[in-house]
Amino acid sequence: MFVSWSLVKGKIKExxxxxIFKVWFEATNGEVVDGKLILEVPNxxxxxxxxxxxxxxxxxxxxxxxxxxxGFVVREIPKAEQLIIPYNPVSLIxxxxxxxxxxxxxxxxxxxxxxxxxCYQVAEERPKGYLIYLYGNFGLGKTHLTQAVGNSLFSRGxxxxxxxxxxxxxxxxxxxxxxxxxETFKEHFKEYCEVLLLEGIHFFAGKEYTxxxxxxxxxxxxxxxxxxxxxxxxxxxxxxxxxxxxxxxLNSSLIIKLNAPDFQTRKKIIKHKAxxxxxxxxxxxxxxxxxxVRGDVRQIESVVLGLIxxxxxxxxxxxxxxxxxxxxxxxxxxxxxxxxxxxxxTCRFFGIPKEDLFSSSRRKDLSLSRQVVIYLLxxxxxKPLKDISQIFKKQHSTIIYNLKTFExxxxxxxxxxxxxxxxxxxxxxxxxxxNLDTEFETSDEIFL
Length: 448
Ligand SMILES: Nc1ncnc2c1ncn2[C@@H]1O[C@H](COP(=O)(O)OP(=O)(O)OP(=O)(O)O)[C@@H](O)[C@H]1O
Fold this sequence. Notes:
With 448 residues, this protein is an alpha/beta fold. The protein is built from 21 helices and eight strands.
């Protein structure tokens, strides 16, 4: 059989979620040379990313078509020439970017690596017609990454980047509407904006007119192969009062979540932030702070800054004692509640609201999530059954039934075991800084 790249690509498309396929394979060229698939990639970054994340898939697909394997050829795309435009569009519409937000200064960990890689890729290559939706809680790096894209483009002479908050967008619209020039406003975007960075899209809730205008503008920009990054605190489906016209467009974007930093990433962030201030913190101080400060990165920054300020005021070295005093003084609650952490991590993993976990609903996904939490509490934290019964306000016998049922499921269901394994690892990284035993225990051990 004649095997072509488009045949293999078609198969990859079937196997991958659409957004992932679009990012990494859709625009990739390839050919079969002497029975081997050669992928043409634009840079080393793409090559490494594909290699690290999709090698199993590529091996599987090439074997299926009788190919001997795959390889890469890196063909750099010449950088876009600087566009000469008669004015600086950023001063007309949009905010100035802060130079402090760069990719180099963004600490990458498990919690944010996908977001980082996609943003980096967008800044490097500006793939055509991309809508990226970056969401996550306060202070987790949405602004940092979005502005890093803009800064990286600007630093290479590409200045058709519009960076705005949703509120700015609305204010501009009102201003132009009032002066009867709304069409000029829209035309301006259409003509000059190549990359739109729009922050805080949740702000448009209930603003029907603006949402509809934005939906039309979005269609136009994406059709023309422009790149758009939106940020928000919530997933598109969780946004209230958003018109279906805009919501459906958001739902079809590449949706990426920024998670709260895990223990390892917090350590890296603390080290990095202190280093930027000219301090090399000792191992025990970093460990201590990373355990105590679990909130967003903004909070981590302020604790590091506070500690260093304190040390320099007192003319003392930064020590564990000083760190302990600071934490006590600012009254950071000890948020090391492992039970809550397991519940939150599991709910996040299965995409269910925490309240639903404790509801009486028997929905399949909820029942499964409950069983996972019960299993983790019992096996990872070694919680007595009586405590787990109290947490769920359920009879002891119900908890035992759930444990048994779940245990039977993981014996049979390999996918579920893999998911559980992943969760145990994530939790162990956070709670212990060591991998906990991920062996699945037998019921005898469980019920002792
Ligand atoms: N991974 C990271 N590495 C280094 N600094 C980070 C990281 N994530 C966030 N920060 C820093 O934390 C602070 C808050 O980040 P940022 O403003 O990007 O968060 P946000 O998600 O946009 O928050 P909000 O929703 O509240 O606007 C910034 O100073 C930013 O530089």
